[in-house]
Amino acid sequence: MEAFLGKNVFDYVVFSDQEELIIDQLKLEAYPTHLVLDKNGNIKKIFNKGSELMAYIDENKSLFHN
Question: What are the two backbone dihedrals, phi and then psi, of residue 13, each rounded to the nearest 5 degrees?
Answer without folding.
Answer: -80, 135
